[in-house]
Amino acid sequence: MIRVAVPIVGRTYDEIIEHTHMIVDRISEVESKYDTTEIRTEILEFRADYYENVCEKTELLDLLSEIRSIMGDRKLLFTYRSEDEGGELRHDRAGFMLEDIYKWVGTAHLAEMMDVELMSGNYRVARCAAKSRDLGIETVVSYHNFEETPHDDKIMEMLHNMEILGGDILKVAVTPKNEFDVRRIMELTEKIVNRDFINEEDNINKPVVILSMGELGRPSRLMVGEKGSYFTFSYVGNTSAPGQIELGELFEELAEKNRS
Questions:
Q1: Residue 159: closest CA among 203, 128, 120
Q2: Is 106 left (phi over 0), alpha (psi -120 to 50) or beta?
Q3: Half-sphere exposure of residue 44, counting CA atoms within 13 Å on the CB side?
Q4: Buried b (16+ CB within 10 A) or exposed e, 26-35
Q5: Confidence of residue 90 (pLDDT cuts 50, 70, 90)
Q6: Rounded Cα gap, residues 167 and 169, in angstroms
Q7: I need a labelling partner for 33 at 20 to 30 A (CA). Which of 108, 197, 209, 236 fits?
Q8: CA-wise closest residue to 182 among 213, 203, 161, 156
Q9: What whole-number distance in Å separates Cα of residue 42 and Cα of residue 209?
Q10: Quick one: which of 176, 158, 175, 179 has its CA closest to 167?
């Protein structure tokens, strides 16, 4: 199964609900043309860092409840992306309240998946992962670098740390400076997915999402499923990261790749 995630973005309640409807309509249009047992838009990612009232509990939970009523049986990934890792708005208050925000969403059972950034600190990651596990929520531990593609050893070190801290899905998104960086990240992904390390302890035992961002990194977004990332990101209307491929175009390219 090839899994696709689409971000929901918007600053106000109305903008976000409108975008959610747009996404769901586009998903229905695109998926009607393909075999959804092979490729499916399985995840909608709510980018909470775009939302102007993210720190208001009642407003946030009401919004998420309405999103859930629209999105059907897909999984909701709750993400608050920090400014350092590509977040949209600067919310100083939200930075201090983030664990409370995770708790609101988790205890209300409004998301099946929760994103927590590795660079927020080992203690926060481990604690959020443990609390999410108790609530039956998967934790996506993530790292984003908008300047470069770190060395393979550094990426592996971060992935192992993500796993140790309790991540259920391990996500790394980096920026290539050239085509070599893209090839390198794709070769590393293949090695991880195939568990192709000489020493057993070097293998990663959790699903990974490894992406090379920007137009240069486009091929890495098509390396998904049994031979690559656990899921890939697309967009409908509004992008949330450089290099995302529009949903219809992504499905077409993935279907063609799957046939070859």
A1: 203
A2: alpha
A3: 27
A4: bbeebbeebe
A5: low
A6: 6
A7: 209
A8: 213
A9: 14
A10: 158
116 Cα distance to chain centroid = 10
Residue 194 has which token pair? Answer: 């195939």
pTM of full prediction above 0.90 = yes
190: tokens are 């293949």
User: What letter would DSSP give residue 236?
Assistant: B
Determine contact, residues 250/223, Cβ cutoff 8 Å: no
Residue 229 CB partners (closer than 8 Å, separation 6+): 189, 208, 209, 210, 211, 220, 223
Q: Which helix (H) or strand (E) holds 219?
A: helix 218-221
Residue 91 scores a pLDDT above 70: no
Could you identify the residue written with the tokens 């992406």?
211
Distance CA 38, CA 129 (A): 30
The tokens describing 33, both together, are 């043309």
Instruction: Dump pLDDT digits (tens) for 99-133.
Output: 999 999 999 999 999 999 999 999 999 999 999 99
Instruction: Give the whole-angstrom CA distance, residue 81 versus residue 114.
Output: 11
- 241, pLDDT greater than 80: no
* Rounded Cα distance, 260 and 252, in Å: 13
Phi and psi torsions of 214, nearest 5°: 80, 175
